[in-house]
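Support request from a user on the community tier.

User writes: "When I paste my structure tokens into the form, the page sometimes reloads and wipes my input. The last time it worked, I copied everything first. Here is what I submitted, just in case something in the input itself triggers the reload:"
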């Protein structure tokens, strides 16, 4: 699958408006190439460079969505108007919705990942990334990835 954004290019800088230093709004995302047999889509956005890219200790989860309809091909900027039936998971701020890049030190990479699944997952009660990945195991038909980077402005 191909995943892209009109806000940033692959491996390019995510604009400040999509971060904690800006309006913290989700970038618009679009995708194509879901294979036949796709019954739902899932999205995970995470940062494997936390807290410090030179010494990463964890992957920080920024956004979790699932049960998007297979006919969906994009998410609008802001992430507020989601495709009908889309369910939310919890990010690492322990809330649903998008939380933008806010790295404490250095330039971090943000992995935006779309998954085509062979089934609907149903109500998982706002799963964490790990819970969603466990539910998706054995059901991923295809995936796409878009990486963006961000570093806070020097003060």
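"...and here is what came back when it finally went through:"
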């Amino acid at each position: 699958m191909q995943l892209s954004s009109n806000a940033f290019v692959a491996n390019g800088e995510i604009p400040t408006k999509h971060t904690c230093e800006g309006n913290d709004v989700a970038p618009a995302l679009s995708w194509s190439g879901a294979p036949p047999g796709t019954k739902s889509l899932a999205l995970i956005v995470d940062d494997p460079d936390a807290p410090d890219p030179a010494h990463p200790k964890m992957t920080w989860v920024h956004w979790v969505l699932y049960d998007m309809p297979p006919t969906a091909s994009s998410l609008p900027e802001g992430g507020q108007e989601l495709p009908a039936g889309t369910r939310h998971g919890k990010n690492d701020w322990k809330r649903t919705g998008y939380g933008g890049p806010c790295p404490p030190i250095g330039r971090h990479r943000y992995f935006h990942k779309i998954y085509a699944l062979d089934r609907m997952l149903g109500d998982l009660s706002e799963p964490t990334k790990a819970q969603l990945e466990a539910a998706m195991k054995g059901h991923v038909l295809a995936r796409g990835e878009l990486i963006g980077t961000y570093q806070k402005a020097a003060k």
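Agent notes: The reload is a front-end session timeout and is unrelated to the input. The longest strand covers residues 40-50. Residues 129-136 form the longest helix (8 residues). Escalated to web team.
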